[in-house]
Amino acid sequence: MHSPLPEVAARAIHPATYVGPPVMSDRKMTEAQRAYEAKRAAKAGMSLEKWLTEKEKRAAAEAREQAVATKPAAPAKKPGFFGRLLEKAQKPL
Description:
single chain, mainly alpha
């Protein structure tokens, strides 16, 4: 049975029993999905559980990399006082 409390409240009330967000291995998978992942795990020489945890770690790492890569670049700063002064000094009279 799913608790009506949000995840954060459940963690605050029962910190010892909180298990965290569901990972791929805890997620409901159909038999076909499980068979596909089992084949991939066997090809990699791992157990299914180990394969799913590694897959979860790779997905989290890619998400972190993508979050870092999508940060917008800082807009170009306006030249400071001395920079503007030097630009004016370089212009012909």
